[in-house]
Design a protein that fits this description.
This protein is of the alpha+beta class and about 500 residues long. It folds into two domains: about 300 residues, PPM-type phosphatase domain (Phosphatase 2c, domain 1, 4-Layer Sandwich); about 100 residues, no CATH class. The strands form five sheets. Strands 3, 4, 10, 11, 12, 17 and 18 form a seven-stranded antiparallel β-sheet that branches. The radius of gyration is 23 Å and the shape is globular. The termini are far apart.
């Protein structure tokens, strides 16, 4: 179930803005998770146009990124996807926005491996994993497949379950071992263990905690974890090493559950536009053949920089020349309200989907418990370089691929009302139509997009963590209203009536 706080963090990061085409609002809330893992970006005009400069089409871009294994990839993507799109040949010359988005997603993986981006990525990562809620140090990890059968039998865990144990030494000397990739729980009140004592606990996937009574078993697990950590440090490999080799886990973590990340809230610029910081990210050979993308990715991995171990979903919606182009990798979503009806512009990418499953198997992977190699519960993502190590396969054929699914819609002026982009923290609770209804009802009583986003986060928040996990994740949502719609006119009228005189 992952690690949860004893009480949710309900403070919200939000922003709002607009131009003559859109009015948008954003809200991001940490919720029950021990850290914030989402990022987002809004760029109302990628060309920097004003009303006097219409020689090129105005291009607007919205995006949501839901990270796992560390916050750095989601934050990096939110900061650099716009400029990465703008430097593709498909954008600057060809005018093929679907290809521009696809190339940008693939190029983002290459940017993650550039030595010049190392400092930025490490800064974005911050202190993730250094301390848990109870102040313990981040510990070693070991997969159940690395433990002796006799020990697994004693623990009641099978070797092929994909279960991962994490050993954490807390500040009072206790050692805890947690399953499901979770962090150590808060220390229970009572007698503290002596400094350096090894107290090992197993936290099962459903959140139950039980101690390992056998001191020998606890010691064996600790030893195995230390050996696994040493192996990992010696065997870090290029993301495009042989397909039949073992994929390196650069941070020793399974993706059994998402880790915590910080939201990447962009600062508002003039005229309601949202600016993105210029970083050291560089352009990757525009529209290079896919074979060259593989070679560049393989060759750019320096010995002293293995790239980040984290990954993130990515959903981006571009509006240009009356066209709506959506790129998606993962399980974040984009939904269009067309005269009150939800139009799904994305589909979730899960390992058990037939097309995704077939690709994973052909790339040399397997699916267990609905997860790639028993670990990652997504089949497409930015980052996650350890799943992209088959040098004989193009990027879109890797076990996990950044190659997005593209969908285009011709906008219908007047009837197309608004876009919703959100991470699975929202979609786990609301269906596409429920989300459209939620937004629409509130627009018609005079609430702003930002207010509606804030209410959506509160609405989706679970009262506690005793359930199935719905409503316990981070939440990020972007609502962008088309000003030319009939609904927008009604909303503005309602807002004027609701405003104090």
């Amino acid at each position: 179930m992952g690690a949860y706080l004893s009480a949710p963090v309900t403070e919200k990061e939000g922003e709002e803005g607009g131009n003559d085409m859109f009015e948008f609002g954003v809200c991001a809330m940490q919720g029950w998770r021990t850290d914030m893992e989402d990022a987002h970006m809004v760029v109302l005009d990628m060309e920097g146009h004003d009303k006097d400069h219409q020689s090129r089409p105005r291009t607007s871009l919205f995006g949501v990124f839901d990270g796992h294994g560390g916050k750095e990839v989601a934050k990096f993507a939110a900061a650099h996807i716009p400029s990465t799109i703008a430097t593709t040949e498909a954008y600057t010359i060809g005018g093929d926005m679907g290809k521009a988005l696809s190339d940008a997603f693939l190029n983002l993986d290459l940017l993650l491996l550039k030595e010049e981006n190392k400092a930025e990525l490490k800064a974005l990562k911050g202190n993730d994993g250094e301390e848990g809620e109870g102040g313990g140090d981040a510990g070693m990890t070991v997969n159940s497949s690395q433990l002796p059968d006799a020990l697994l039998e004693a623990l009641g865990v099978s070797g092929d379950s994909g279960y991962v144990f994490k050993i954490v030494k807390s500040s009072n000397g206790q050692m805890r071992i947690t399953g499901d990739g979770g962090e150590a729980d808060e220390e229970e009140e009572g007698e503290e263990a002596a400094e350096g004592a090894s107290v090992v606990e197993i936290v099962t996937a459903d959140g139950d905690v039980r101690p390992v009574e056998d001191a020998g078993a606890a010691a064996a697990i600790t030893t195995a974890a230390a050996a696994a950590a040493a192996d990992r440090s010696n065997d870090l490999r290029s993301p495009f090493s042989d397909a039949d080799g073992d994929a390196a886990n650069t941070n020793g973590k399974t993706r059994k559950r998402k880790s915590e990340m910080d939201v990447d809230s962009q600062q508002s610029g003039g005229d309601g536009e949202v600016s993105t910081e210029d970083g050291p990210a560089t352009s990757i050979g525009n529209d290079a053949p896919k074979e060259m993308l593989i070679e560049e990715l393989s060759g750019s991995r320096e010995e002293d920089w293995q790239g980040p171990a984290a990954g993130c979903t990515a959903v981006c919606a571009m509006v240009r020349n009356g066209d709506l182009i959506v790129a998606n990798a993962g399980d974040s979503r984009c939904v269009l309200s067309r005269n009150g009806q939800a139009v799904a512009l994305t589909q979730d990418h899960k390992p058990m989907d037939p097309e995704e499953y077939d690709r994973i198997i052909k790339a040399g992977g397997f699916v267990a418990d609905g997860r790639v190699n028993g670990s990652l519960n997504l089949s497409r993502a930015l980052g996650d370089l350890e799943y992209k190590q088959s040098k004989n396969l193009p990027p879109e054929a890797q076990m996990v691929t950044a190659f997005p699914e593209i969908r285009s819609e011709k906008l219908q002026p007047g009837t197309d009302e608004f876009l919703i982009l959100a991470c699975d923290g929202i979609w786990d609770v609301l269906t596409n139509q429920e989300a459209v209804d939620f937004v629409r009802e509130r627009l018609l009583v005079g609430k702003t997009p930002k207010q509606i986003c804030e209410e959506a986060c509160d609405h989706c928040l679970a009262p506690d963590t005793s359930g199935c996990g719905k409503g316990c994740d981070n939440m990020s949502i972007v609502v962008s209203v088309f000003k030319g719609s009939q609904l927008a006119a009604q909303a503005m009228q309602a807002r004027g009536q609701a405003a104090p005189s």
